[in-house]
Every structure is written in structure tokens, then in C-alpha cells.
Automatic annotation (TrEMBL):
Residue spans of biased composition, Basic and acidic residues class: 282-295
Compositionally skewed regions (Pro residues) per UniProt: 233-245
Low complexity: compositionally biased ranges: 248-258
Region (Disordered): 225-264, 279-321
Domain called C-CAP/cofactor C-like: residue spans: 318-455
Upper taxonomic lineage: Eukaryota, Viridiplantae, Streptophyta, Embryophyta, Tracheophyta
Pfam family, one: CAP_C
Protein name: Adenylyl cyclase-associated protein
Annotated GO CC locations: cytoplasm
Family, as annotated: Belongs to the CAP family.
Organism: Arabidopsis thaliana x Arabidopsis arenosa
Length: 478
């Protein structure tokens, strides 16, 4: 590591000496790893910054791995992967310019980020029209580019998640299609599996760890730099961008009922969708967990390999239990903790529990909603929820309601023990692709034993009088 750092510093000094000997003159500065940038000593110094060099490493290693896999597949997969590489190259150029530029206003930021948005629109265009045989590849790559919108983060009130969280959340959107690629080709063609794995590792941990190391609070603009302006030309090799602007004039001028947070939310929406009028992405029916045909209780060999080969990717970070922006309790990656307690909460807050194992959480007070996601052997004791209690992608969880809950939903979960009290017996329970769901209710008398009810997971479908009638399968024994 030290030798590599010394080599980088020596290379930077050599370039600076070359510029100095030429009087800081014009011309294009050619970087051995970074392509071509605008002339000037300021640009060369910025491109030699450790954060830029680290981004070059990310491109050469992680993006290079995806490209190598795509070259073996060819066709549309290679085309869309080249656009991904172009997007990362465009973001690198923007990072270099940020180090020389003053922080712009909303309209200026829109123009500044236009090159990145144009590349994203190119990827989105490949997913439109008639579906190709590689549609899942195209959607995974296209949707993943929304992670690059972390560069638009300007503060906690801008309407976006923090940069690290934004990268993680954006990948979750793309992972739906990436998993389809893994399932479709897991026992057929290794090149496609390698491509899907490489694409995931480009973002998790690749881009996430880069942002965490260099820009955890967003880009750092140069207060004494030059004013921001849109580049005079598109990135090398990119075709002319479509004429649609990133923002309409109305979006850059908040109304009396809007504020800066809504304006920055527009930045994120446009970068995510790649179109002016499309707004935030909508969840279609085929993306809903209950309709996902590629998900089941069984764990495929590819999924096992992914989970066991590099365990670090199964977590989003170190153990966490904190209130984020005053509205969301995040309880993540808690292992073997039996005494977790949330005591100060209110009905406007939500609780999100992710990646926990062999732990118990007690929520004292009424909250808006509670979600358990990808947890194993997790116990949750809560008082009241206003909206719903959701259990998703879990194994062997126990939930006890001490107050009331209008709705409890269980999706893609194996093993769930739900305890209801007398005040929550009218709770509506929805299950999808789940098994071993048991509900415990109080006995008829105050001193009576709890009564266990197993929710059905098998159904009979009979076509009668022009429609199907569905009834649970009943088992009887002697």
C-alpha cells in the first residue's frame, strides 16, 4: 500500500513539473489512467487528488471486470455495459471539475450534472421498445446507474438519502433484475453469472466503499473556484444528447408552497429516471414481492455461493441502532443482542430492522409502521402500530403484539411465530410465498393456555360456474 502511494505521488509530481516547465500552458493533459481532461494546472492537480486516483482504481478494477464479462457475452449486454463504463467515466470528470468549481444553485447544478444524466438516458433507452432476450441484463445495468446520483447530494435537507445510503437503496432497485439473471443462467452459462456478480460488486461494496471513504457527506465544492457551468461538449465518444432539458423552468423556481427540499428531490428524480416528465420510478406489479416468480423459500446454489464466498456483502455495514432525520429508526446488523430497546418513539416514526440475527428488540410506544427485512432468529416485541407490521425475506422470527396492529403482512418468509393479544385479534394477516406461519392467540379464560393456529400454505383451486374457487387444503387424521 505504501509503495503504491509513493508511486502515485511521484507520478503527480512529475506531471506538475512538466506543467511548470511548460509555463502552465494549454493543451490536453493525458493521464495514464484517467483519459483526457481540460487543460490547465488546476485540472491536473485535481485529477491527481487521492479521491480521484481511488475512483480510477474503481473504474479499472470493478468496471473493468464487468466489461470483461460482457465481452464474452457480446450483443446488447456489451453495449449497455459500455454505457455503464461511460457513466462512471463521466462522473469521474465531474468529480475533477467539482474540485475547481463553486457550489452552484439548483439551476446551475442541473446543467452541471447534465453529462451524467445524458448517459443515463442512453441506458434507459435500451430498455424501451420490444423486449430483447437480455432485457433483465439491460434493466439491471440501467437501473443501477441511479446510484451515481449520490453526486447531487447537497445536504440533509435536499430530499435525498445520505450518499452511502443512496448507493445502497439504488442498488436494491437494480438487484431485482440482477437476481433474475442469476436465476436464469445459474446452471447454464457461467459468463452471465459472472457478469451479474461483477455488476453487483461494482456497487456493493465497490462504489459504496468509495463514497464511504471519500464523500460520506457528499461532494466537496471549491468555495474559491470558478462558477459552475455546463460543459461545452459531451464526454468523448458520446453521441449528441437529446434536446430535453434536465429541468423545466418551473422546477427551478419553487412555488410559495414548495421549498428547497422539493427542489433537490427533483434533482434526484431526474437523475434516477433519466427523463424530465417521468418523475420517480414506479413499482410495477411484476416487481412486487408477492408477484415475483423468481423468489421462493429454497436457496439456490448460486445464492449460497454468493453468501458464503464473501460474507461482507451480506451486510450493509457495522451494527447500527439510530434515529435517522427524526423519522426512521434503523436497527441493522445486530447479532446476538437480546436487550435492544427503543423507548423514545412516536406515531410519526417508523422502525426498519435489517440483517439482524439471534437478537431481540423491544419497541416501547406507538409507531407508524415496523418492517423486518432479511433477519434470522429475530424476536420483536411491540406495543402499537398505526399502519402495518411487515415481515419480508426472514427465517424463524417471532413477533409479539402487546397492543394493536391493523395489518400484519408476511412475504417470502420461512418460519414465523406471531403472538396476538385480545386487543389485536381483529388484525388482518396477509401472507405470500411463506411457510410455517403460526399464530398464537389467548385462551378463552384469563388463565387459559395460548392456542396455536397454523395458517394454510396449500390451496385447492376448482373451476366452478365460470370462475375459480380457492379453498385452503384441510388435513385430517385418525
Amino acid at each position: 500500500m505504501e509503495e503504491d502511494l509513493i508511486k502515485r505521488l511521484e507520478a503527480a509530481v512529475t506531471r506538475l513539473e512538466g506543467i511548470s516547465s511548460n509555463g502552465g500552458g494549454g493543451g490536453v493533459v493525458s493521464l495514464s489512467r484517467g483519459g483526457d481532461f481540460s487543460s490547465g494546472a488546476g485540472t491536473d492537480v485535481a485529477s491527481s487528488d487521492p479521491s480521484i486516483l481511488a475512483y480510477e482504481d474503481l473504474i479499472s478494477q470493478c468496471v473493468g471486470r464487468v466489461l470483461t464479462a460482457a465481452e464474452k457475452i457480446g450483443g446488447p449486454v456489451l453495449d449497455v455495459t459500455k454505457i455503464v463504463a461511460e457513466a462512471f467515466a463521466s462522473q469521474k470528470e465531474l468529480l475533477v471539475r467539482i474540485k475547481q468549481t463553486q457550489k452552484p444553485d439548483l439551476a446551475g447544478l442541473a446543467g452541471f450534472l447534465k453529462p451524467l444524466n445524458d448517459v443515463t438516458m442512453k441506458a434507459n433507452a435500451m430498455t424501451e421498445g420490444k423486449r430483447s432476450d437480455f432485457f433483465n441484463h439491460l434493466k439491471a445495468a440501467s437501473d443501477s446507474l441511479s446510484a451515481l446520483a449520490w453526486i447531487a447530494f447537497t445536504g440533509k435537507d435536499c430530499g435525498m438519502s445520505m450518499p452511502i445510503a443512496h448507493v445502497e437503496e439504488s442498488w436494491q432497485m437494480a438487484e431485482f433484475y440482477n437476481n433474475k439473471v442469476l436465476v436464469e443462467y445459474r446452471n447454464k452459462e457461467a459468463d452471465h453469472v459472472e457478469w451479474a456478480k461483477a455488476l453487483k460488486e461494482l456497487y456493493l461494496p465497490g462504489l459504496r466503499e468509495y463514497v464511504k471513504s471519500h464523500y460520506p457527506l457528499g461532494p466537496v465544492w471549491n468555495a474559491s473556484g470558478k462558477p459552475a457551468s455546463a460543459p461545452a461538449k459531451a464526454p468523448p465518444g458520446a453521441p449528441a444528447p437529446p434536446p430535453a432539458p434536465l429541468f423545466s423552468s418551473e422546477s427551478s423556481k419553487p412555488s410559495s408552497s414548495s421549498n428547497q427540499k422539493q427542489g433537490m428531490s427533483a434533482v434526484f428524480q431526474q437523475l434516477s429516471s433519466g427523463a424530465v416528465t417521468s418523475g420517480l420510478r414506479k413499482v410495477t406489479d411484476d416487481m412486487k414481492t408477492k408477484n415475483r416468480a423468481d423468489r421462493s423459500g429454497a436457496v439456490s446454489s448460486v445464492e449460497k455461493e454468493t453468501r458464503t464466498s464473501k460474507p461482507a456483502f451480506s451486510k450493509t455495514g457495522p451494527p447500527k441502532m439510530e434515529l435517522q432525520m427524526g423519522r426512521k429508526w434503523a436497527v441493522e446488523n445486530q447479532i446476538g443482542k437480546k436487550d435492544l430497546v427503543i423507548s423514545e418513539c412516536d406515531s410519526k416514526q417508523s422502525v426498519y430492522i435489517f440483517g439482524c440475527k439471534d437478537s431481540v428488540l423491544q419497541i416501547q410506544g406507538k409507531v407508524n409502521n415496523i418492517t423486518i427485512d432479511k433477519c434470522t432468529k429475530m424476536g420483536v416485541v411491540f406495543t402499537d402500530v398505526v399502519a402495518a407490521f411487515e415481515i419480508v425475506n426472514c427465517t424463524n422470527v417471532e413477533v409479539q403484539c402487546q397492543g394493536s396492529a391493523p395489518t400484519v403482512s408476511v412475504d417470502n418468509t420461512t418460519g414465523c411465530q406471531l403472538y396476538l393479544n385480545k386487543d389485536s385479534l381483529e388484525t388482518a394477516i396477509t401472507t405470500a410465498k411463506s411457510s410455517e406461519i403460526n399464530v398464537m392467540v389467548p385462551g378463552a379464560t384469563p388463565d387459559g393456555d395460548w392456542v396455536e393456529h397454523a395458517l394454510p400454505q396449500q390451496y385447492n383451486h376448482v373451476f366452478t360456474e365460470g370462475k375459480f374457487e380457492t379453498t385452503p387444503v384441510s388435513h385430517s387424521g385418525a
